[in-house]
Design goal:
heterodimer, A: about 260 residues, mainly alpha, elongated, B: about 300 residues, alpha/beta, Rossmann fold, Alpha-Beta Plaits, 2 domains, 4-stranded antiparallel beta sheet
Chain lengths: ~260, ~300
Amino acid sequence: MGTPAAFRVAYRDLLIYRRVWKANLAGALFQPLMYLLGIGLGVGALVDKAPDSASALGGVSYLAFYASAIMATTSMFTAGQEALWPMMDGFRWSNAYRAMISTPLEPTDVVTGVAVYFACKTAVGATGVAMALTLFDDTRSWGLVAAVPVAVLTGLAFALPLTAWTSTRDSDRSFPPIMRFILIPMFLFGGVFFPIEQLPDWLEPVAWAAPLWHGVELCRGIILDSIGPAKATLHLLVLIGFAGGGWVVCTQTFRRTLRP
Amino acid sequence: MAEPLIEARSLVKRFDSFVAVDGIDIDVQPGEAFGFLGPNGAGKTSTMRMIGCVSPVSAGSLTIFGLDPRLDGRDIRSRIGVVPQMDQLDAELTVEENLIIYARYFDIKKGEARRRTSDLLDFVQLTEKAGDKVDHLSGGQKRRVSIARSLISEPELLLLDEPTTGLDPQARHVLWDRLYRLKERGATLVLTTHFMDEAEQLCDRLVVMDRGKIVAEGSPRSLISQYSTREVLEMRFGRDRNKEHLDEVEAVGERVEVLPDRLLVYAADGEGVLATLRERNVVPDSALVRRSSLEDVFLRLTGRSLAD
């Protein structure tokens, strides 16, 4: 037997990525460090002075609370952006995906191959963040290793539904609004900077429905060893639901777009 | 005669209510160079995409290698090479990498892919560009990369959709030369074009398509002899005066076409017609006698020129 089709698809993306992966890893290392020094330590010093902050944050320092969420947010931004412009390139600009389906590859192979590539790319980013988090006493734990695959899954929970959207578009006009009105609000209100219990009551269920919160809670719980198996399973299932659902929709939209 | 490589009967392609291909019959034999000639929007590309198994058949029947695209698309595509209308190359990768990733799509092992890549780059005369990014190549060179890439799987059938559109004349001739060599090696070529000279150069047999239908079929020479005369006299009388001498011209030519800028007179002996007209004091500003081409066939069949 030969190589599975999805890996042959991902080979193309990885060949392109090979030229930039070091920069990508360096970015994943230094960007969270900047955030952590600025917000984690700076804002954290103020927050930790408040008398009831520790209980609101689940008994951890603000640095630990915030830093552990960066695993998930980095994946969201990496995979999310990857699902927008680079996907549009494959469909409309370089037409790489059209080239693929004129070979024995099927549209479904392309979907799975793209998912493999997303996973590889977010794994590099998540590893970079994990390495950065080992520098801080509050976040240095074996949980960082287990959080890497969770971060990858969080990335897929964004990338695959967004890829389905991209595959039906003729232009990239909708992409800046997606960044501005979907990814950024999730970043701000998805339990990254403060627990979602601090949100107005009516907004809290919105955070439950967003994949980011589940990724953040699961990464945080694993890194800080503060989550029970029931909650962890629930978060995991939601993330798998978004990623798996996105994959299923992609198989349909890819077929429709690539094989009119 | 051998079993046809491609056989289509009453083949139809619809997009919602628009009928792109309207019930065509085709037989392509192994080793043949077969062309679809027609203007933009005639249905050539839609037909090619159905043959390439990347667009479902709306109605009618189509078999390639005796197989049904609906059931055996993957198998058929593994035996076809495709040169699309617009290059689908990865601009960020090198010429060599473009060929190797494409070989991987066919699950060709890397060592074998490298060997074939070096042979094919030699064939399309791009060996010295192997390590260059595709982005830095000229249009003609990119086209040659596309052709090399389409050959990486050693296909039995090569589909070329407007292979030379957008290229300068020199690049076109280089490309024709390479395609001609493939033909000599016994490859089956199916191509679309709206250049009559390209069809004349490359095709053993072709169909003329217009608005989704086949309007004529045959070898370039037989189409010309059937639908045109041996020679064509092109005369210009200056703006708006082309129609003034129409009666006299029609009296001597077999057939006359009035175009906005010139008159085309169809005749076996163009110089003879011009001499007769001069004797009768019909003197054009300029005159040119040329051989009939497929352009004339197309004009005769559809009343429109291919360039429209």
